[in-house]
Design a protein that fits this description.
This protein is an all-beta fold and about 500 residues long. The chain has 2 domains: about 10-420, no CATH class; about 430-495, no CATH class. Helix content is about 0%, strand content about 50%. Strands 1, 2, 3, 4, 5, 6 and 7 form a 7-stranded antiparallel β-sheet that branches. Strands 8, 9, 10, 13, 14, 15 and 16 form a 7-stranded antiparallel β-sheet that branches. Strands 17, 18, 19, 20, 21, 22 and 23 form a 7-stranded antiparallel β-sheet that branches. It is globular and about 60 Å long. The relative contact order is 0.13.
């Protein structure tokens, strides 16, 4: 099976994010910036209208680490809006990897998303809290209104409980942020809506994975908006921890009527619900959903297998969002000066995986690389230890070779994990029909769109209503609808653009 792959991904010239609260604050946070362009780029890092880094020159094909003072980290769950958004800008395309390593034995990282791919609808995904589950919202523009809809009752401030069906509303200006924490509840499944694009970060202040393992670690990911979610994923173990320690997953839907197959198992989920599953040692499986979903993978605390590492959290990129090339930088040393062992895992068609290059070398020729086939599919998984430190590239033998990939690392009492690259094409599109109130959501890859309109919402049309959405590419056929009083009628004709 192959998917249309769009070349837009997570490179950009403007990023905005925040750092969630960690176990405690002892060190500066780390931001790694890689210059993908063939010429030098100038980078600025801004916090509270002050340039922390100004005109940092990064040569072509090089990277720099920037260290942020720990007062940029959000603190406590509060009704107070703070100007704690961090902005990174450049004059050429860059990659931004962020590591919340302000505690020397509690860290995780995320791949920052450029502001031009952010959206207005998100669902929070975390893990069962040991200290707190938490999330944060960062506004990109002035006049941003944000609504939060919890998936379970949540105590907001000292005396107010927000029940399911209730909401909290905030009004934010550019780079203002709000963080919410819950020590007793899991925010997974909560919905966030806004009138303008926002950045959303989600995770745990310090979580034990699984819950009965004592050592906790910070968990965080920057979330993609719902319109970029996918329906097909590969769930595979993390190299270096092949037992159940790296095989824990959580999946959640955005729409009612979502049917999900995890290998041979089938489940039905609605918004606000989520499903956890765990694979056997060295098992891989295909996850397929009827509607877009979000899938994350958790690494476990080191006591679960007595191997180096600790809890981590990563988005699992969907196969719909595969890319043709990617750049990443290894994270090499923790704040207690412990060396980090870095790994990558690549998901691809089996034929494509044969062509995948790491720094110009075929992955399959790298010593100790591991490869497996996802049973009863044409997909394969390849994992390799990244020995050399610094900036690396993953590419295919041709422009049609596509893949998704995850970077992760282990150290004593520490781990991190995050995607290496994510496509950012729209997977959910909105059809807006002329002279009709409302809009209609559909799969952007769908070749036929059937919209059934109540007569009360439109005039009595005697001609075909066609879709003028920008998501419909030339040559696609859209089913037209003729609405006649007093009923509804689907017309067996088509509009062709």
């Amino acid at each position: 099976m192959s998917f249309f792959t769009e070349q837009r991904q997570n490179a950009g010239t403007k990023f905005a994010f925040a750092l969630l609260e960690n176990y405690s604050l002892r060190h500066n946070a780390t931001v790694i910036i890689a210059n993908k362009s063939p010429v030098e780029t100038l980078v600025n890092v801004t916090f509270k209208d002050v340039n922390i880094i100004e005109n940092l020159a990064i040569p072509a094909g090089k990277h720099e680490a920037v260290y942020l003072p720990n007062d940029v980290v959000l603190k406590k769950s509060d009704t107070i809006i703070v100007q704690n958004g961090i902005e990174v800008t450049s004059d050429k395309d860059i990659i931004v990897q962020v590591y919340n390593d302000v505690h020397h034995r509690s860290m995780d990282g995320f791949l920052a998303l450029p502001t031009h791919v952010l959206g207005t609808e998100y669902f929070v995904i975390t893990y069962s809290p040991w200290i707190q589950s938490q999330f944060a919202v960062v506004a990109i523009e002035d006049g941003t209104e944000v609504d939060f809809y919890p998936a379970q009752p949540f105590r907001f401030s000292v005396s107010t409980v927000i029940h399911v069906g209730g909401r909290i509303n905030w009004k934010l200006n550019a780079l203002e942020a709000i963080q919410l924490q819950c020590p007793q509840c899991d925010f997974s499944g909560a919905r966030i809506k806004s009138n303008k694009p926002i950045a959303v970060l989600s995770g745990n202040r310090c979580a034990s994975v699984p819950e009965d393992v004592l050592s906790c670690d910070h968990l965080v990911e920057q979330l993609p908006p719902v319109n970029q979610w996918g329906k097909t994923f590969i769930a595979a173990p993390l190299m270096g921890r092949p037992q159940v320690s790296g095989n824990r997953f959580r999946i959640l839907p955005a729409r009612y009527g979502t049917e999900i197959a995890v290998g041979a198992d089938s489940i039905s989920l609605k918004p606000g619900e989520f499903h956890d599953f765990q694979l056997a040692a060295n098992e891989t499986t295909l996850v397929v959903a009827s509607k877009p979903v979000l899938l994350v993978q958790f690494g476990s605390g080191f006591e679960s297998d007595n191997l180096t590492g600790d809890p981590s959290m990563t988005l699992v990129p969907s196969l719909e969002q595969r890319v043709t090339e990617a750049t990443f930088v290894t994270y090499n040393k923790t704040k207690d000066q412990t060396e980090v062992t870095n790994f990558i895992t690549v998901h691809a068609d089996c034929d494509d995986l044969d062509e995948i290059l790491l720094d110009g070398r075929h992955m399959k020729t790298i010593p100790d690389a591991e490869f497996t086939t996802v049973e009863l599919t044409g997909y394969c998984v390849g994992s390799v230890k990244v020995v050399s430190k610094g900036m690396h590239s993953i590419s295919g033998g041709t422009n049609t070779t596509t893949f998704s990939a995850i970077l992760y690392g282990y150290a004593y009492y520490n781990s991190f994990a995050h995607p290496i690259a994510m496509g950012v094409k729209d997977t959910l599109c909105i059809a807006r029909l002329p002279d009709v109130s409302g809009s209609y959501e559909y799969d952007c890859e769908q070749q036929l769109l059937a919209v059934e309109l109540p007569c009360a919402t439109v005039r009595n049309y005697t001609t075909i209503i066609c879709d003028y959405s920008e998501c419909v590419r030339p040559g696609r056929f859209i089913i037209g609808i003729e609405v006649t009083a007093p009923g509804r009628k689907k017309l067996k004709s088509y509009c062709n653009y």
